[in-house]
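<amino_acid_chain>
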Amino acid sequence: MSFGYQMLGFGGGGGTPTPPPVDAVLATALARYTADDIVGSNPVTEWTNSGTGGASYDFDTVVGTAANLIKLESNSAHVPGNIGDGFTTPDSAAISFTGDFTLIICMSSDSWETSDGAYYIAKAGANPNFSYYISIDPSPVDGAMRVGTTPDGTYTNQVLTESTAAIPFSNGDIGWLRVTHDLSANTMNFYTSTDARTTAPTAVSWTQLGAADVTHSTSGVADGNADLEIGGTNGLTAPINGNVYRAIGMASTDPTSTPAWDFNPADASPNVDTWTSSGAGGEVWTINGDAMVNATSYDAVYAKGSVGLETTSGTTLSDPNTVFAVAKWEEASPGSQRALFDSRSDNAKRHKSYNNGSPGPYIMSGNTDLSLAEPFVNDLNVMTYQWNGDSTSKLTVSGTGTVTGDAGSHDWDFGSLGMLYNTGGNEFYGAIYEFIVFDSALSEDDIALVQDYLETKYELANAETLLATALVHYTPADIVGTFPVTEWTNSGTGGASYDLDTVVGTAANLISVGSKAAGFPNIEGSYFSTPDTATNSVTGSIEMVCRMAGDWGNAGGILCTKYQAASATQGYSFNFDAAGTLSINFRGSGGNVSAASDASVSFSAGDVGWIRCTWNDTTDECKFYTAADEASIPSSWTQLGTTQTITSSGIVDSSNLLTVGATLRTGGGVWLGEIYRMVVYDGIGGTVAFDFNPSDAAVNASTWTSSGSSGETWT
């Protein structure tokens, strides 16, 4: 046969899914570090290797200030503790509480225990635009929760109330805080919770913090025009150093009421400066300064400076090698060099990645710097480093640019992450999501696979974004018709003027091949085959079922056969005929015999349906059936016409090749259509003689092994 002529459809559909090709590539990575491999949270103590290189590639040594290496959880916001860093939304009637209110925040802090006076939630601008805030209070109770309000917008007349007990969390802990102000009762109540950060804010279980109904005497809360700030106050001064997971406010003493505003980092998207709340208020939040949102579904290792990771000892890697890093620099404009990775300790064996400050470009260097011409941006990016030891080395930063050239020819003393080699200097500030190392040069196709996988995983601009700009795009969803196809419409930006709407030539020869199907192009020599075995040499009662599509009633062909060249060893054959009838023929005890249904199938051209034939060696009865399409072999069948008779004592034990779709003979029953499944049983309801199932095949494979109990190999 000529394999190039018959087709396998590999879209969606039934059967065992074929693993994505990228999985096979990633399985060969020498070192790979993902969210699942992070050890510890506040602080992170290790990032283990899930690649083939094993534990010797674990980043198991923290260098520098250990407390500065934390886990930045998925869908969380980080405020790094600098003035001007945090999140804001403009003043509106919804956020301007003037009487009762409840404020809730879930966060972690580096200063639960140090009482640095940081502000968590604040609508508190300069006079006369101060309204309300929550902060941590260093006195009179060290570590108490403090609430401030003012009736006239001035700080002169502000009313301050503190909880009578300290917030019970340790530095780095994640916890919930709540304050509830009852204007008519002139009270403030304080609460905490250790419920999971993913708990709905209105469903949190609360514990009273200190005394209940602490006096807070005021005539009301001023309706100022200041922004609402998360992580600081009055222009994001007195900021927190920690993560915020959720914050809400409601104009009510009921913590289960509908929030008026809802700060939820899960609403954000990667690499955007603003997002719209999914809450009832629909307010717009803005990221300010070097604050950061992990808007992905994956945790990251976050370095806050003066800290990095390294392996216990160095391992020498020689060029070529390929590295992928998914990371986001915290600083929009770093004032000095920030190293993403480097060698462990050997200055003569360095592969390093850094930006060169002020803010400087992206650079890869193995003793020679290769720099992007495009300016540095602190977006979340996928960075690809192809270290080839010559002028073909290549640096690619998604969404930014690519450069090819000489990056030096050093070996690599692996390794350190988040700092320069053996110094703990020039540390990285920001989040590292994934780091992958291959000790080989990947092909450009494999690199593209990994890049697109990572860009899709972390919700960055990827192939889908690029395809959305295509002038012309034809996909399976755009095919019009099946038997025949009459048109392929354009789903690209160019519109209908680019539709392929005119069929030229023999229209009947243009068909649609379904996913997980074997296609037959009506060309002689186009078939699938498996060798003769005792299992597929049925010699008595037989049952044959097939799920197929074709030009029913207008063209016929052979479905499966061992009825090859004329000889005394011709076996069985199952066929559909041009009149829409079904037939079986084989060499029996008295020679060649056959039977055909006396009714035609009711399927239309292009329909997918099931057909079936049985012959009983004892009674000589031959029956034909049909069934509506379904993914599995039907349990209910409708007999096609009347019962026929084939008189024979068995079927010849043929040694011929078993073929599906045609015979080996010239003019041997070729046809135009597709088969999704073909199963033959030795006996009616007997054991499987063979199971032809295209969904068992892999893309671009010329052979496959049946997943059926017969386990035959198809070519």
Observations:
- The chain has three helices and 53 strands.
- Helices lie at 21-26, 444-457, 463-467.
- Residues 1-18 have pLDDT under 50 and may be disordered.
